[in-house]
Amino acid sequence: MSPERSRLNNTVRPDEFSATLRRLRQDAQLTGIEAAQAAGLSQPKISRLETGKQVPTAAELQALCRVYGAPATTRAQLLAVAHDLREEQVSARVMLHRGAYRMQERIGRIEAASRLLRSFHPAVVIGLVQTPGYIRGLIGESLPDDELERIVTARSERQHLLDTDREFVLIMTEGALRWHVGSPAVMIAQLQHLAETTRRTNVRLGVIPWTTPVRTGALHGFHLYDQRAAIVGTETATAIITDTRDIAAYETSFTTYQTLALFDADARQIFDRLSDEYRTLDR
Question: Phi/psi zone of residue 264: left (φ > 0), alpha (ψ -120 to 50 degrees), beta?
């Protein structure tokens, strides 16, 4: 394995939400068993919450914050994250009625509360690495101009997370990059941005070439946030999933896609080749 390909190790660091719960318990000088007894929970539940494998309910979180003597600001922040992570399916019509940018903001908060973010998409460029021009080309005709610009702003602000020490593994198919969004110029700029992103030390950005034989289907994109949550989007709805069995299934699929993908210099060769093809369309 090359130095480039080994930049991200296989150890998942504790996410911030779980790490905060663990730190509060330790600051209170309580063992997991003692915390569980005081909060009316089981010790395995404490362990699952502190390892990012389960999302606490508001009542569970309130009980733990009371036992730990958590400051009011910390309690409010934890409750806000738990609220964002609640399992829910939101229809596209409801999102548009509320303001589609609000879902972008909610996803941004979920991302900010995570340490390892993994995304796969077979059809479009992943949101965290989309350029403003690509975003406008992808969804521009379906929304009024003011609503579109709010989404562009919200999605662009989410991308500041790439400048932190969080870890990202982002995988797309070559077919997603051949979905001609906007214009050749938009796609060339997008591909150049992807090539630059591969040089970030905290990001592994991979492409599954169309020439790679596969033995599994890819029905839709999905995003994983540590081991706690997945977000799946379709044309009619967006689902936030926290069931541990469903998360495990998505992790298995992601591992399969990751073994099929090319990264680093190999990925950049694909971006360069596709950029050349789009340039021939722009003549």
Answer: left
Please check the confidence at residue 6 and state whether its pLDDT lies above 80: no
Question: Phi/psi at 156 (nearest 5 deg)?
Answer: -65, -40
Q: 234 forms bridges with which residues in the sheet?
A: none
If one counts the domains in the chain, the total is 2
- Is residue 28 domain-shared with residue 40, that is, in the same domain? yes
- The three-point CA angle 61-65-68 to 5° equals 140
In sequence order, what are the residues at sequence separation of 6 or more whose Cβ sits closer than 8 angstroms to the Cβ of residue 172? Answer: 120, 121, 122, 125, 126, 206, 207, 208
Count of beta carbons in the 10 Å neighbourhood of residue 238? 19
In a domain, 57, yes or no: yes
The phi, psi pair for 180, rounded to 5°, reads: -75, 95
Residues 107 and 50 in one domain: no
| Token pair 């949101």: residue | 127
Which CATH number do you get for residue 179?
Answer: 3.30.870.10
Mean pLDDT within 81-93: 70
Tens digits of per-residue pLDDT, 143-191? 778 888 888 888 888 899 999 989 999 999 999 999 999 999 999 999 9
Residue 52 belongs to a domain: yes
Residue 62 CA, chain-centre distance (Å), reads: 27
Q: Which residue has the higher pLDDT, 239 or 256?
A: 256
User: What's the token pair of residue 119?
Assistant: 């995304």
Tokens linked to 236: 């009619």
Residue 176 C-alpha from the chain's centroid: 17
Q: Which domain holds residue 150?
A: 88-281
